[in-house]
Write a sequence for this structure.
């Protein structure tokens, strides 16, 4: 897989994990940064492995959404190796933070000096999807305007 | 600047008190040379500089009150992250404070140009008349040497300078009166949907204490936040008609009105919320007298002339760090002032006085440190209340701020929070983390986040702490910062009077939650720094109340005002009894804390002090 293909699969996996369409993820402008963050911490080899296994899941489910989610849960989210990675990918998109991997995972798979809990960037905070899921705006950005807090929600 | 130069006025601290005094003097006196020495960093008039604060906020992992602002080892600010429970006989020396306890002092403040008003919420409540007479009326603490009527004209001036949004007819409660025809500069900030939901669903709720029935009513909170100017506003002192909101310093079209950034604490990105940079900016622009502001210059000591007992010199050090952050150059300086004003914060003022052996007659310096102890209760509303919108709080339930019960237990102010569980439980981050740990992803994750956060609701119950001889600040040769200045050494506890207040507040909380059909989620951890227990008897049974309080950021006491120089540090104009050319100004002068957030009263007192200093130069 070349870089461009890997990024595509990363977006594909992210769409499933976050519940948001590709359009939304692209609009955040964070995709490439998150891809690079995960790859930098996992290392190129493990990253390619992750995305190749995801590619296999896509092929095996042949467009059947139910099967896709079953495989995703079984092979990725509940997997000892990929589960924590998937959860971190979700939290990257949702909060703009990378959270240090569990000690057990670091011992069994990768121990990287880059694997520290941190905010990826100011814009990753602002583009965090958690605020969108809430139906709100990120604290200190994208302000909805005077008086809007008095209006009934939705 | 020439070493040992004599200024007409030297002000220590570029927060709201220092800023107000500098602005008043430079507007009303001619030809004065005024120096402001600020310990921390920051520029006063540069919006680019402020944008850096916004950026630091976005990049901060723990978004604490001081997280946007620069912290320097040469002028450290206390951080909430440093606070822990205190083990027997072992002081907590984690951060800037050295805490002997037994209970940790839970609050923090900000040492930078602009001071703590950079991160404050903006709540601007007046004290109520009975607040000034705690000893006479309720047998606790001490009385103030002045009363509400004495402060009334100064509250007006403070409300103008800060730019307060409120309606007089809603604020005529608790014996608080306003001059005939007075209106606040701006109309009240719109109450949140949550406020109105609570108003509707709590109708008729009352609470009985000490034989008196109190209505539990949601009332709008006056705040220092730009809203809609009130066309009826007239400045009683300048005769000016109408009010022009002051926007961001260096970018005045921004922040003309609150835009719902929902981030007052720790930073309003557009400066719709008042901060002292606005007043400092005006002070520096005034041409009648000259104001010079020097930052990165913590004052170590003031020198007292043994004959005149006046302050003769100030000793301070400047720190300048190279652009690459590698090298810091430190220099020692002296400066002289005909009048000297300490306006560095209650604890910092006490620190300087103690280090200087100044104001020793009353033995009150550093004594009676006070804070509002904030107990949080939280839960789920039955409906979507649109949490996480607007200013941190737009209303409270203030009618129990005063009453005969103050003989027995602490009064409390009730703050309705608009930001869900952000304070008690670090939401929405923790909601996200919990959902992900539960295995949720995709649409299920979105659903869970929406369902949870939209109904998250919290109340803050702010207990008044009365003066106590167990609560004091001191200094110790063992504990100094990187510049060689003393770190505050704090001895502190939560007394039964306050614990009883918390117990009553918890009962009212239960009543309110029940009426609103809130599913409680309050989770007080015994590992929390502010964890406490209170044993009491009820219906003949022994019970233990276990709860957690947090600091409100209301750092008060340590240089109390009074008429008697044997029992107080300053007079009612904040002039030091012991040294005639010294003023020690700020929340430190409060003899008691009351149940209002202290900033508005501090600002009112700053005007009293300014008037007194103006007299020195115009007589």
């Amino acid at each position: 897989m070349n870089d461009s293909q890997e990024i595509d699969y990363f977006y594909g996996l992210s769409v499933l994990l976050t519940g948001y369409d590709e359009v939304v993820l692209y609009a955040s402008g964070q995709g490439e940064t998150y891809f690079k963050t995960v790859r930098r911490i996992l290392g190129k080899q493990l990253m390619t492995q992750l995305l190749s296994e995801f590619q296999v899941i896509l092929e095996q489910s042949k467009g059947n959404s139910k099967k896709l989610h079953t495989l995703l849960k079984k092979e990725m989210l509940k997997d000892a190796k990929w589960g924590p990675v998937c959860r971190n990918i979700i939290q990257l998109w949702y909060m703009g933070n990378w959270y240090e991997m569990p000690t057990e995972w670091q011992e069994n798979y990768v121990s990287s000096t880059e694997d520290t809990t941190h905010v990826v960037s100011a814009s990753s905070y602002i583009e965090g999807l958690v605020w969108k899921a809430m139906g709100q705006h990120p604290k200190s950005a994208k302000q909805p305007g005077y008086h809007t807090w008095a209006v009934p929600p939705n | 600047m020439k070493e040992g130069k004599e200024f007409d006025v030297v002000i220590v601290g570029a927060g709201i008190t220092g800023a107000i005094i500098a602005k008043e003097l430079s507007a009303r006196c001619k030809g004065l040379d005024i120096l402001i020495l600020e310990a921390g960093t920051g520029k006063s008039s540069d919006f680019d500089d402020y944008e850096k604060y916004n950026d630091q906020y976005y990049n901060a992992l723990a978004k604490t009150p001081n997280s946007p602002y620069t912290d320097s080892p040469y002028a450290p600010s206390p951080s909430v992250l440093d606070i822990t429970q205190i083990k027997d006989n072992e002081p907590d020396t984690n951060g800037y404070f050295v805490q002997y306890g037994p209970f940790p002092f839970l609050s923090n403040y900000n040492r930078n140009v602009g001071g703590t008003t950079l991160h404050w919420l903006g709540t601007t409540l007046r004290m109520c008349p009975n607040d000034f007479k705690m000893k006479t009326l309720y047998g606790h603490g001490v009385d103030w040497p002045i009363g509400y009527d004495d402060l009334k004209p100064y509250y007006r001036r403070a409300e103008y300078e800060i730019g307060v949004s409120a309606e007089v007819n809603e604020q005529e409660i608790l014996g608080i009166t306003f001059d005939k025809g007075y209106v606040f500069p701006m109309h009240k900030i719109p109450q949140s949907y949550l406020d109105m939901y609570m108003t509707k669903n709590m109708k008729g709720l009352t609470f009985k204490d000490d034989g008196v029935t109190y209505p539990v009513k949601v009332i709008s909170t006056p705040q220092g936040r730009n809203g809609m100017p009130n066309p009826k506003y007239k400045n009683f002192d300048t005769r000016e008609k109408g009010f022009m909101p002051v926007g961001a310093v260096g970018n005045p079209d921004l922040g003309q009105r609150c835009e719902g950034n929902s981030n007052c604490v720790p930073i309003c990105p557009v400066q719709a919320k008042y901060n002292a940079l606005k007043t400092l900016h005006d002070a520096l622009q005034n041409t009648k007298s000259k104001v010079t502001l020097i930052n990165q210059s913590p004052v170590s000591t003031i020198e007292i002339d043994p004959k005149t007992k006046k302050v003769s010199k100030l000793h301070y050090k400047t720190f300048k760090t190279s652009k690459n952050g590698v090298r810091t150059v430190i220099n020692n300086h002296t400066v002289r002032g005909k009048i000297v004003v300490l306006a560095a914060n209650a604890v910092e003022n006490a620190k300087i006085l103690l280090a200087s052996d100044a104001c020793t007659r009353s033995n009150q310096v550093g004594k009676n440190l006070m804070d509002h102890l904030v107990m949080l209760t939280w839960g789920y509303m039955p409906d979507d209340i649109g949490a996480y919108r607007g200013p941190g709080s737009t209303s409270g339930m203030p009618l129990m701020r005063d009453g005969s019960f103050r003989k027995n237990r602490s009064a409390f102010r009730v703050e309705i929070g608009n930001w869900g569980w952000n304070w008690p439980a670090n939401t929405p981050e923790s909601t996200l983390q919990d959902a992900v740990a539960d295995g949720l992803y995709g649409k299920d994750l979105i659903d869970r986040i929406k369902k949870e956060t939209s109904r998250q609701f919290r109340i803050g119950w702010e207990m008044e702490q009365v003066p106590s001889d167990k609560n004091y600040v001191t200094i110790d040769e063992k504990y100094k910062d990187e510049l060689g200045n003393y770190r505050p050494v704090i001895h502190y506890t939560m007394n039964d009077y306050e614990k009883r207040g918390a117990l009553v507040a918890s009962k009212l909380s239960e009543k309110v939650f029940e009426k609103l059909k809130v599913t409680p989620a309050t989770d007080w951890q015994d590992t929390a720094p502010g964890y406490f227990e209170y044993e009491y008897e009820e219906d003949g049974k022994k019970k233990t109340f276990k709860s957690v309080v947090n600091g409100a950021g209301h750092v008060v006491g340590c240089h109390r005002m009074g008429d008697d120089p044997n029992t107080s540090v300053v007079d009612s104009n904040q002039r030091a009894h012991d040294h005639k050319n010294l003023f020690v100004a700020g929340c430190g002068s409060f003899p008691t804390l009351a149940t209002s957030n202290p900033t508005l009263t501090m600002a009112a007192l700053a005007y009293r002090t300014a008037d007194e200093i103006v007299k020195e130069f115009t007589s």
Notes: The mean pLDDT of chain A is 97. The first strand of chain A starts at residue 97 and ends at 98. Strands of chain A lie at 97-98, 118-119.
